[in-house]
Design goal:
14% strand, Rossmann fold, 13 strands, alpha/beta, 388 residues, seven-stranded parallel β-sheet, six-stranded parallel β-sheet
Length: 388
């Protein structure tokens, strides 16, 4: 199968708009931009499919609801999938969630023509170790794409079956859209940031896994030797409230140095990111994709991150930023202080971050690596067919 013959169905059965959903929809967008026809499939009113239609203007297939556990819908879903794959002449299925994986394997099994099935794994958890699940992963699937090396290692530790039939391909973004600002972000003026001040920020939902508390403790320590620093927290309440973080900032004596910014869908995301001089990811869990770290880098902003999951694979310590242990606010404070007090280092690391974003996390990089994965999947199918 050549690239010109390829037409993919990206199954993205995610109940909300999260990193896994972003991976599937952005991949569909990147493939279409590269001339590879690709359709986003899922529940019609799901957040990912709405984004696919309304934001990315992608072709969609919405006659299925693979999220439903109702047995009576399973056969209807499978019939709809078979009909669509046949009529749309789909040549490869890429499943992004466990539900998609199961239906993709059934469709592959009953297809009258060879239909490669690729599973993209962006899950934090290891797979459940039981016979049926191993059969699905071993004989029911042709190739795997892991969103980070840590996920590959987790899966390989459960079943040593993925070597030679998998690849690590990081999530990407459109670096033509996300690029360094030519002029200072107008948001800095609105927030009252002085020209000599250095703005250090976390952009993430307010949730314990994002560990804003460690960020605030690091901020308090950094201010002792980097008094020009200002700090920003932007995100919607989610298991942690803005008021709770404000109380902590007050207890630490830094409330006047921290800006709390509510999520504003009317604000250009690039303007928000571009207002920062240093971007921080303080998470103590999750982050098998971490879109925000790549967004920082694409805008030429150095990153201070923890060492959770994909983060040390994205941020190269000492080149595009600094990486420290999760929950280690003292290390985070040292890294923030180093960047706040050294404008030349911020500039150098920011430039490196931008180059890395273009080389490793751009749409062209994603497409090139994914097409190679699809080629290998097709080769596995072809060889298996010959052996059969």
């Amino acid at each position: 199968m050549t690239a010109s013959e390829l037409k993919t169905l990206q199954l993205v059965s995610v109940r909300w708009w999260n990193a896994s959903a972003y991976y599937g929809i952005s991949l569909c967008d990147a493939l279409n931009r590269a001339g590879i026809p690709s359709i986003a499939g899922g529940r019609i009113d799901s957040p990912p499919l709405r984004k696919a239609r309304e934001v990315f203007s992608l072709p969609t297939f919405t006659e299925i609801n693979l999220e439903s556990l109702k047995p009576q819908l399973a056969l209807r879903n499978l019939r709809a999938l078979r009909r669509y794959v046949r009529e749309a002449r789909i040549t490869l299925i890429n499943a992004h969630r466990p539900e998609d994986h199961s239906f993709g394997a059934l469709l592959r099994q009953f297809s009258s023509t060879p239909l490669p099935l690729v599973r993209t794994v962006s899950d934090v958890r290891s797979p459940r170790d039981h016979r049926l699940n191993r059969l699905l992963h071993d004989r029911g699937t042709d190739f795997y794409i892991f969103s980070c090396k840590v996920s590959y290692e987790r899966y390989q530790a459960v079943w040593p079956i993925f070597e030679g039939r998998s690849a690590v391909i990081y999530s990407a973004l459109n670096t033509d859209f996300y690029h360094p600002l030519q002029e200072p972000s107008p948001l800095r003026l609105k927030l009252g940031i002085k020209p000599e001040e250095v703005l250090v920020g976390v952009i993430a939902r307010l949730d314990p896994v994002k560990d804003h508390a460690s960020f605030l403790r690091a901020a308090a320590q950094a201010l002792e030797t980097a008094p020009r620093a200002r700090f920003l927290i932007s995100g919607e309440d989610c298991n942690v409230t803005r008021e709770e973080l404000q109380v902590l900032a007050g207890e630490l004596g830094i409330l006047e140095r921290v800006i709390f910014l509510d999520r504003d869908d009317g604000l250009d995301h690039r303007e928000l990111i571009g207002a920062l001089d240093v971007g921080v990811v303080s998470s103590n869990g999750s982050e098998v994709i971490c879109r925000i770290a790549v967004e920082y880098m694409a805008l030429g902003i150095p990153v201070v991150s923890t060492d959770i999951n994909v983060l040390p694979e994205i941020v190269e310590h000492g080149r595009s930023g600094f990486v420290g242990g999760a929950g280690d606010h003292q290390a985070m404070a040292r890294h923030i202080t180093t960047l706040v007090n050294n404008a030349e280092l911020r500039k150098k690391m920011g430039q490196t971050a931008r180059r890395d974003a273009e080389a490793r996390f751009s749409y062209p990089a994603l497409v090139a690596q994914t097409l190679e994965a699809y080629r290998r999947a097709e080769e596995i199918v072809r060889k298996g067919r010959v052996k059969g």
